[in-house]
Amino acid sequence: MEITLAALHGRWTTLVVRELLRGDHSYSELRAALPMLSDKVLSDRLAQLAEAGVVERDRRPGWPPRVRYALTPRGHRLGPVLQALWDWGSEASARDSGAENGRETSPVTDGPD
Length: 113
Fold this sequence. Notes:
By secondary structure, this protein is α+β, with helices and mostly antiparallel strands. It is about 50% helix and about 10% strand. It is built from six helices and three strands, in the order ααβααββαα. It has helices at about 1-5, 15-20, 25-35, 40-50, 75, 80-95; strands at about 25, 55-60, 65-70. A hairpin with a 5-residue loop joins strand 2 and strand 3 (about 65-70). The protein is elongated, with a radius of gyration of 15 Å.
């Protein structure tokens, strides 16, 4: 459990993983999907995830160089972990607010088509 938490440490890391669970992205696509992150934070999180073996960085030759970020097989295995965390939080939030059904669209598995 500590290894998983260490790989996901830092604010916003789970949101970066969530976006990459939906498919590979360029840096600019990630910036557009996560406008609340500064360039520094996004760069730091991508580097941290790459170092943890969760994300791979594919740099294509040419000018300007094109870089795509994608989850490794190890990174894809975080999908159910994040889903379980979201489910638990959603249930706890619904219980705390007194809602009868706290189930909403999952930010991990559901997304724009």
